[in-house]
Specification:
Radius of gyration of chain A: 22 Å
Structural class of chain A: mainly alpha
Number of helices of chain B: 3
Distance between the termini of chain B: 58 Å
Strand content of chain A: under 5%
Order of helices and strands of chain B: HHH
Distance between the termini of chain A: 36 Å
Oligomer: heterodimer
Number of strands of chain A: 0
Largest sheet of chain A: none
Shape of chain B: rod-shaped
Structural class of chain B: mainly alpha
Number of helices of chain A: 6
């Protein structure tokens, strides 16, 4: 990857990844407000805010972070499957994105209950209404732990190559040896 | 001033020289895999006892497929 293109891709990846962490922190604040808020209006508003923040900020940032991360890995010498830290980052980001999608459909249903209010709800919605009072701390809390773990992995880059990475490295060294002229 | 930690042309981080990496699976990878296995086991136990949390909870709620704010407002919810 050309240096300028690499810097652009790195900037995009950093913006998306750090933005994802920041958006989850904002989501966590809404989750805490829903769980601890004394008035019903605050609780409903928090769930509607979680729904909007999740779909329009966190989901796009998660997808963009995953995509730019793959581009960065494939476009540099690190590769996607050569180093354990890249492999772990990819796996954790993919798991976080899948769980996010599963969770957001849940959040949307609960936000719909919050929008509808308490008047005239059927027994099923009444059950969901009880869940509104629980707030949402588990998902954003665990999500933050996972995202910060990925960030630490990306900064420290702990050593360790996969078998695939070693094989590729040996192949590249063999090619270099073939190209290098033998001096008598 | 050039960053001595970056490759002068590619800009790659050179903090971890590829050629000097330890042979075999590093300890941090083994420890991480053990932690991941324990977490997965805990999730399975939570699912089995039914009182915890898991994907099934989401599936039960979401029998109509993925819903977004846009979809919900279109459906008049």
């Amino acid at each position: 990857m050309a240096p300028n293109l690499r810097k652009f891709a790195l900037s995009a990846h950093l913006a998306c990844s750090v933005g994802w962490i920041g958006a989850v922190m904002a989501y966590l604040a809404f989750g805490v407000a829903a769980a601890t808020g004394r008035d019903v209006q605050t609780m409903r508003a928090a769930w509607i805010a979680m729904d909007l923040t999740g779909w329009y900020v966190i989901v796009p940032l998660a997808l963009a972070s995953l995509l730019t991360g793959i581009i960065m890995a494939l476009g540099t010498r690190w590769g996607l499957l050569r180093h354990y830290w890249v492999l772990f980052s990819l796996a954790l980001t993919t798991i976080a994105t899948v769980v996010l999608f599963l969770h957001m459909s849940d959040v949307s249903q609960l936000a719909d209950v919050a929008r509808a209010g308490s008047a005239g709800v059927d027994p099923v919605d009444s059950h969901l209404y009880d869940r509104l009072r629980e707030g949402d701390l588990l998902h954003p809390g665990l999500g933050l732990v996972v995202l910060l773990t990925i960030q630490v992995l990306n900064v420290y880059k702990p050593p360790g190559m996969t078998r695939y990475g070693r094989r590729k490295q040996q192949e590249q060294r063999a090619k270099v040896r073939e190209r290098t002229p033998v001096r008598a | 001033m050039a960053d001595e930690h970056l490759h002068p042309e590619s800009g790659d981080n050179l903090d971890t020289p590829v050629g000097d990496e330890p042979v075999g699976t590093p300890r941090w990878v083994k420890v991480s895999l053990i932690i991941a296995a324990v977490v997965a086991l805990l999730l399975v136990i939570l699912l089995l006892i039914g009182g915890g949390h898991g994907p099934g909870r989401h599936m039960a709620l979401n029998s109509g497929g993925l819903s977004s704010p846009a979809l919900s407002s279109r459906a008049g919810l």
